[in-house]
Amino acid sequence: MLTVLLILIPLVAGLVTFGLKGSGPKMLGLIASLASLAVTVGALFQFRTDPGAAALKLDASWIPQLGAKFTLGMDGMGLMLCLLTAISFLLIFIVIYNREYERANSFYGLMLLSQAGLVGVFTAYDALLFYVFWELALIPVYFLCSLWGGEKRIPVTFKFFVYTFAGSLLMLVGLIYIYLQTPEHSFSYASFVSGAVSPEDQSWLFWLFFVAFAIKMPVFPFHTWQPDAYEQSPTPVTMVLSGIMVKMGLFGVVRWLLPVLPKGAYMWSDVAIVLSIIGIIYASCIAIVQSDIKRLIAYSSIAHIGLMSAAIFTNNEQGLQGMMVQMFNHGVNIIGLWIIVEIIQNRLKIKNLNEMGGIAQYAPGIAIFLVVISLANIGLPLTNGFIGEFLMFSGLFQYNVWFMAVAGLGIILAAVYTLNMVQKVIFGQSNALTETTTDLKANELVVLIAITGIILVLGFYPKPMLELVSSTTELVNKVY
Amino acid sequence: MNALISTALSGVVMMFAGLLIGNKQRIKIVAIVVLLVAFAANLAELSTLGAGERTYYGMITVSHFSILFNAIALGATLIFFLLSGSAFEKVGEHVSDYFALIFFILAGISLASTFSTLLMLFLAIEIISIPQYILAGADKKTPKSSEASLKYFLMGSFSTGILLMGIALIYGATGTFNVAELALGAGKVNTLALCGIILMAFALSFKVSAAPFHFWTPDVYDGSPTVFTSFMATVVKAGGFIAFIRIFHGAFVGERLTADWQLLLAIITAATLIIGNFTAVFQQSVKRMLAYSSIAQAGFMLLAVISMNTFATQGIILYAAAYSVATIGIFAVMIKLKDYTFDGFNGLARTQPVLAITTTIFVCSLAGIPLTAGFFAKYFVLAAAVQQGNLLWLVITAVICAAISAYYYFRVIIAMYFKQGEAETEEINGGFKLMLIITAAIVILLGIFPGLLLQFI
């Protein structure tokens, strides 16, 4: 019931929002996201007391002719991502509360629909249902970017849509093939992981799934849509894209690739890891030379996701656990960074780093939070980014020392571009424009305090998060 | 049988209606009423049929499948009449005759879904084709319409000749016209029969505008009065596919034989998908884009013809319904616009939000986005081809083409929502909007519960 509520709340609220006027949409958006967070916290408590509770599941008939059912459920990873979704949407809605969007009803409506789609992806335990939610999460984002984005939004969003749609269709072929191999012709998760697919089939089916997930993450060389899309999207949508939506790809690998095609994944893990590592180095190098702050963060995100995708294929518990914890932490940190970008962009209407400088003198609040979040983003010890990165590198080290050594260069490069960005934005010489910067408003302060709180708490005490995802890690290790 | 009789009679009724009723609006109402009667008569046969099928005089065989297909064809035509019926008046004076011709086409389609001899198949194809040649040239004021009609007639006659030749060769090889008695699959494949099958495959490919026999399609669709293009591209095309699938799945079955024509049709399918999709990308007129997209969609439907399994039968039913309804919907919207180019749709979301949102749903369905009927239509035909086993290369080609199709379909959405402009439309009444909403609701309903249709097979 709780899982259904998590989808229904944003879905119904989203549909209702389309018909509202004035400040109605933003109010409903806030209420719905608060309610979603409350339900997620309820689910979290339920999960800790009884992971198999009926309240976390749903199994209803859908298309009997196909053997597809409306099956929802929660495991540690799904719950963690639902929590990330709920927190992120609430923070986003709070921070944009005093912004006025044209056609606000459609904006908030589409945002809520994308939330429903995302939660659906993280909770679906039927392959066809997963596919449907996978696509549904994409459609509202397509409209959000195309309607409220930057100057080049239409071709950029279109490229993003066609890329991901092509990947999804390949995955659909893979899903159909596996479905036909299952003895009882079913899309249920249990049937998919039953091992019905032969190793020969797994070797090529791997690519149908991997390409779909790699585009979404994005992993080199499937990443070309990402920097443009992040740059051109309105910042709240970029937060959704980079904070939550890229996690769909990582989630897909853990939930639908590793357990369903373990031999295929084992066969191609070297290639997948090498592609991921190329992505880390390549994106980091490009990030260093970026002068557009949105593009810089976009490329830094490719590098971070590259490490996570490498860690998935390391075939050991530490790598996987680190990756899962990092999914949450990266989501929080990157959203924090985007919030600061949004605040600066809203105040100064610029994105070029070379035009910024000296903000610390006029807006110390912004400066403090930017430093804390940036340091968390590069995985400084005692911030939330550290534990995940440590575990992932440790996993990678166990898999192949050389892979770890090359990927490790990413830490140095990340420090270079991140500190360079911090330097250019808040320190140095101020100019006529940056001198007009005003400090944080109450709602912005609340959001950034919340994010910093999460960063520090999980930096000092990551155990609850590690425990939450451990059930999924154990499951994945069994199938190799 | 009921569908065949009732649609043929309906055609005659409409011809007399033209003599007796002067008011064009009333003629449309009469057409809708007789269509509803035909729809009911078709469904009524279900109760008398029982579990099996019934053959009449060794010529036609009525089954659950044929009744369901006829229901879809008649249902789609009903939506077509309700949405676009008033556009008949703009084509020319002979409104009742146009309705009559459409009923005769429907009679041909119901024959195509029930034939049990090759002769009946030939008749079905001809009954479907000839009224279309006339409808294509119905707008006598426009030279393009006459050109379309002539082109269609010449090419159509040519393909009919090929079909007849194919039938003659098969008759020569087997000595019978009866589909059930052909027994081509047993033993060694007769060369004469194989030639016949190939000729029939070519002729039917022409009728469903599969590449490389598609050249007539864009010109004919573009030149014909838009309202009739809508019908030709949807219900009629589905009728062609039903004939295709019934003859190839029903009569040309055998281990060696099936492999032979499957390869031929697989190549035709790949060519259709690639040519249809790639050419549609470059079109500036939505009408021509839809013409090429109908070629592309034919490629998907051909996947069902190639695959010999239950998914294929379910797929063709779902595809016929999903594709017809969505395309009729988008054509109905286009008829109301003054400019048929993509730019003509610019800013439609601001001026006519209902039209824009329903068009979005139709376009998403054509592209195969989940929760619209088009998704499951594509799903079933892809599943059929995957299950076939040796066609994975074709399946991958198809999904890549489907991704390309998103490009041109979404151009309509981009124009409506994201581009500045004042799309000029004719006056649009509440009834039309309501019908559009109902049509879009059908698309979504079938997209969530495809079982609603499939349970009847």
Describe this structure in words.
The complex is a heterodimer of chains A (480) and B (457). With 480 residues, chain A is an all-alpha fold. Helices cover 75% and strands 2% of the residues of chain A. Chain A has helices spanning 2-17, 24-49, 76-95, 104-123, 127-148, 153-181, 189-192, 199-216, 225-232, 235-257, 262-288, 293-312, 317-348, 359-362, 364-377, 384-399, 401-426, 442-460, 463-479; strands at 58-63, 68-72. Chain A has a two-stranded antiparallel sheet with strand order 1-2. Chain A starts with a helix and ends with a helix. Chain B has one domain. In chain B, 76% of the residues lie in helices and 1% in strands. Chain B has a two-stranded antiparallel ribbon. Chains A and B meet through helix 5 and helix 6 of A and helix 16 and helix 17 of B.
> By helix and strand content of chain B, what is the structural category?
mainly alpha
Query: Helical residue percent of chain A?
Result: over 70%
Read across the widest sheet of chain B, the strand sequence of neighbours is 1-2
Kindly report the average pLDDT value of chain B.
89
Average residue pLDDT of chain A: 87
Q: How much helix is in the residues of chain B?
A: over 70%
Pfam families (chain B): Proton_antipo_M
Enzyme class (chain B): translocase
Keywords (chain B): Cell membrane, Membrane, NAD, Quinone, Translocase, Transmembrane, Transmembrane helix, Transport
Membrane topology (chain B): Multi-pass membrane protein
